[in-house]
Amino acid sequence: MKIEKSFNVAQPREHVWDRLNDVRFVADCLPGASIVSELGENRYKGKMSVKVGPMAATFSGDIAVESRRENWSCLVSGKGADSGSGSRASGSMTYSLADGSSPATTRVDIVSDINLAGPLAQFGKGPIVQEIANRITAAFVANFESRLTAAAAVSSDTAAAAPAAPTRPQQPLDAGGLLWAVLRDRLRSFVRGLFGKSPASS
What we know:
Blueprint: E1 2-9, H1 13-20, H2 23-29, E2 33-40, E3 43-52, E4 55-68, E5 73-81, E6 88-99, E7 106-117, H3 127-155, E8 173-174, H4 175-195
Parallel strand pairs: 3-8
Antiparallel strand pairs: 1-7, 2-3, 3-4, 4-5, 5-6, 6-7
């Protein structure tokens, strides 16, 4: 399953590049994700916790990062498995950076290719997954921009020195809740389409 997303970040490209190459920083912005350990040579052990209704899964596996500074792009690939449900996941994500519409903004283009197998694979099909991806991306962008702004303030020469705030434990990605929210919004749109129009003139 291929997913393509683009978004703009209100930070200079160099700053965005540095943070997107910090895998722990990125994992802290993505619901359910965490980095367990570093394996060296830009390889890591990671986890992704997902909750779908009563079923919860934690994918554990390896992540590899290949940065291409010459064209502002990076390839992240990985694979993992959940021992409880027997579900497996593998995939890759390529992101590239470009100057945004104003000097202080950056455009981020992401192409992800994800493969699911096992019980959770039933949630990896259809256009609804695209809408769930939109919501996950929106949450990631909001967290990413917020943390970027906070990091820039702390590193500023005029910022007062303060102890780093402890990292909050990541909550599982609630795929079931996202799925319900998407279906609810679609139903509301459908109802508005049926009853929100003024009656046709006779």
